[in-house]
Amino acid sequence: MAASVPLMMLRPGSSGRICDVRGCRCTCRRLSDMGLCPNAQVEVMEEGHGSLIVKVNGSRYALGRGMAAKIMVNEDA
Amino acid sequence: MKMPDNEKQFRVALVGNPNVGKSTLFNALTGMKQHVGNWPGVTVEKKVGVSRQRGRDIEVVDLPGMYSTIPYSLDEKVARDFLRSGDSDAVIHVVDASNLERNLYLTLQLLEMGLRPIIALSMVDLAQEQGILLDVEKLSSSLGLPVVPINASRKEGLDRLMAAALSPVGPEVLAVDYDKDVSRDVAVIRSILEDAELEGNREWMARNIVAGDVTLLDDVPTDIRSKLDDALSSMAAEDNELSMVDRRYAIISDLAAEVQERPPRRRSRSDRIDRVVTHKYLGIPIFLTIMWAMFQLTFVMAEPFMALIEMGFEGLAEFVGENVGGTLGSFLGDGIIAGVGSVLVFLPNIMILFLLLAIMEESGYLARAAFVMDKVMHAIGLQGKSIIPMLMGFGCNVPAIMATRTIDDDKDRLISILINPFMSCSARLPVYILLAGIFFPSNAGTVVFALYLLGILVGIGSAKLFRSTLFKGEPTPFIMELPCYKTPSALASLQKMLDKGWVFVRKAGSVILLAVVILWVLSYFPSGVEYASEDSYIGMLGMLIAPLVAPLGFDWKIAVALIFGFIAKEVVIGALGTLYGVGDDSEGLSGQLEGDPAWNQVNALGLMAFVLLYTPCVAAIGAIRHETGSNRLTLFSVVYGLAVAWLAAFLIWTIGGALVL
């Protein structure tokens, strides 16, 4: 398995599986509630300047600058 | 089914994630029979309506959207606590069919609370469009809950839904079970809770506490609380949390695999729109164009309606002038018609502005603005989400200040609150339209646009200042759901527009009317003096404060109008109308001001800037006090606004005076 990378390194159109969420408990829990928990499949739709639009399980989220750096993923081949 | 009980109304609560069509369902169920108030003690909007079903009235409560029963914001806590209180006879859980997994996460949590919700399946057509096949029967039997597909905007499925809500729901089928570590810790917490006198479901409380819900700890007596804290400190909190989340999603993914078939994902319509609208480089220009178009439309579309209202009041003033004389005539003409009439003329602008804001929100674009503007907002020390209350501030600062509640970081939130008054609300628009129309007739639009821009720039500057002094630190990153784009519902948008229009009319008929009556009395007496002259009471008051604003090029009448403007910004116009006694004057307020040598382009511009920047109104001060919870910050906000306004008007008067006059 490839090494995990921060979600922000993924280019639009690529996808990966979340392996770890770094950050305070509060942030982690919120991300889990919204479906961004370990093992979730995430697809990067658009990228702004450090912010991302991602899709998880059919839901679309905007992740502000910094948030995408806290989520570690294994990129799909 | 139980017999209708006239003593106590049957109450149904609507619950669900944000953006699942909950409000659309609420509107479809209750129609015009709804009431918007606040939840006791907090300024979270409480929407209650009445739905007529088979000859009996059902009360419907629309709860704020929530992702989880562990609240993350005040809104979510209000919703959660209502569900906990058992104050509803039935719970309808709106579930987005195109987004089953995430929605079912909340369903499981509701089941854990011991609730037996009725599932209203929304967005069925969207799911079909995406090729999702859903077995509704199977979903219902797996969950052990009634599932009713609905289309709220076409009013389909509502009768079945309400029939289900009025019938008892069957016994529990699906139970959420956790691994042995979690179960052991839950049992420990539960045994501690057994000793406490508590309302409600202890098993659920124990589970949520283990899952990390600290809000519940505040509800228990202090002795129990310290026992809980001790017990929790010896547990592997993070492992428990993760394992509980994992378990829930595992149950959901098994369930989803059974009841739905999903084609491989492809780009949906919303994805294609996002491709352009949230484009890295096109995003910001598109955003600015939309903003610009919004303000243009506000002016252009309102013009004919404004002319009509103006004609109406002119006719009324003429009638009063010809038929009623003496003190009463002056009271009606100079006072009421001049004051309230001058304000009501701007009703069309305000309604159109709110209509456009509603359309922007309904269509799904507003949420995108947070993404598009994230970098810009970061540069000024805020997060992308802060743009939303700023945009709402163009309508009215009061709900905008409340909307900062969705920003979860305290510092980000306080800065957003403090800069919101600089976003030029619709109440200030009448002042600009009037003054820009008189003194800058050929480029009124540009002047008004420049004022909005000035407000934004002052907001940005202040945010940077506060970030580097009062609230040091980095803005926190945010996460926000982006709903699918949809055609805004005409009914919902129009209703919002009418609501806001009605609020404005009521304001004109109450606060503004009262202010102009007081002004008229102070202008008319002591009896015998010339109306609104320097010898009247208002004149004396005005002369007293005039020196404060003399360096800005304002005379005493403007000073009086500004003081009364604290009540509400429209009052500035109403006050000028009354002070100039324009009721039966065919030229109206514009003609009077144009002819008065105390007015010129420079001080008119200064006045507009002053009105833009100083404290919006009492209601906004109240909202700031409520949301910051701090008298000091509230006072600071008022003083800061006044100081900035004074400085801006002073600079305009000094520099402009040197250049032009």
Question: In words, what does this structure look like?
Answer:
The complex is a heterodimer of chains A (77) and B (661). By secondary structure, chain A is an alpha+beta fold. Chain A contains two helices and six strands. In chain A, 52% of the residues are buried. The model of chain A has no long low-confidence stretch (mean pLDDT 87). By secondary structure, chain B is α/β, with parallel strands linked by helices. Helix content of chain B is 61%, strand content 8%. Chain B has 29 helices and ten strands. Chain B has helices at 22-30, 74-85, 100-112, 124-129, 136-143, 158-166, 180-194, 202-210, 222-233, 237-259, 269-277, 283-323, 326-344, 347-363, 365-372, 374-379, 387-393, 397-403, 410-419, 429-439, 444-468, 490-524, 537-549, 556-564, 570-579, 588-595, 601-613, 618-628, 631-660; strands at residues 10-16, 34-38, 45-53, 56-62, 90-96, 118-122, 133-134, 147-149, 260-261, 479-481. In chain B, helix 7 (180-194) packs antiparallel against helix 9. Mean pLDDT of chain B is 87; it is low at 1-5. The chains are: A alpha+beta (77), B alpha/beta (661). The interface between A and B is large, with 40 and 51 residues.
CATH class of chain A: Mainly Beta
Unreliably modeled segments of chain A: none
Number of strands of chain B: 10
Shape of chain A: globular
Short précis:
The complex is a heterodimer of chains A (77) and B (661). With 77 residues, chain A is of the alpha+beta class. Helices cover 17% and strands 40% of the residues of chain A.
